[in-house]
Write a structure and sequence with these properties.
single chain, 195 residues, 75% helix
Length: 195
């Protein structure tokens, strides 16, 4: 679901960013039930008419938040696979785990809410494209490292990361270092036959 109107000026972009930040705050607190266009407009300090200029409703707000979260993770993965750290499998895994833990646990309630929202929204090709791009980037690096079945392996590694980190976020995880260590062991254990 696209924005109703694209912000072209800095002031308009700032307004849209403020609206999305307000929506993220509401999703991080009370969750989906608290996310209404009126509540978002009030939290963002804009009129409901201003909100509707850009977002036709709650579903559009959620879709934009999901796309923004995936774009942030994609940016982190792009940096990792293009860095010197990605020259060995162990370093690649360590960097991916660090980025994933930092991303998903920065705001675990937001992550859980957006995961739930995604299951209730119509498919969003733009958001799906981010996920596909992350898999392609990791698979390309795995192929360069001579890992068999790089695309399947990339999907599996992402699944392990997401599953373990989501579970830790729901717990909630008191020790990020311990989570990083457990996740590292799981991913490297999975990759062991390929390494």
């Amino acid at each position: 679901m696209e924005l109703r109107k694209q912000p072209r000026q800095d002031r308009s972009r700032a307004k849209v960013d403020g609206i999305l930040a307000a929506a993220a705050d509401l999703c991080s607190g009370p969750g989906l039930d608290a996310l209404t266009t009126n509540a978002v407009a009030a939290r963002a300090g804009v009129s409901i008419g201003s909100l509707y200029q850009y977002f036709p409703g709650k579903a559009a707000l959620l879709a934009a938040l999901i796309r923004a979260e995936r774009a942030n993770l994609l940016e982190a993965v792009e940096r990792i696979v293009c860095s010197d750290a990605a020259q060995s499998l162990t370093k690649l895994v360590d960097e991916l785990i660090e980025a994933s833990v930092a991303h998903y646990l920065a705001r675990p309630a937001l992550t859980r809410t957006l995961t739930l929202a995604q299951s209730q929204l119509p498919p969003d090709p733009a958001a799906d494209e981010f996920s596909a791009r992350i898999t392609v980037l990791i698979a390309a690096r795995l192929e360069e490292l001579a890992i068999p079945g790089p695309e399947t392996t990339a999907r599996d590694v992402l699944g392990i990361l997401r599953g373990m980190i989501d579970a830790a976020g729901a717990a909630p995880e008191p020790d990020r270092g311990a989570l990083t260590d457990r996740t590292r062991r799981a991913v490297l254990g999975y990759l062991q036959p390929a390494a």
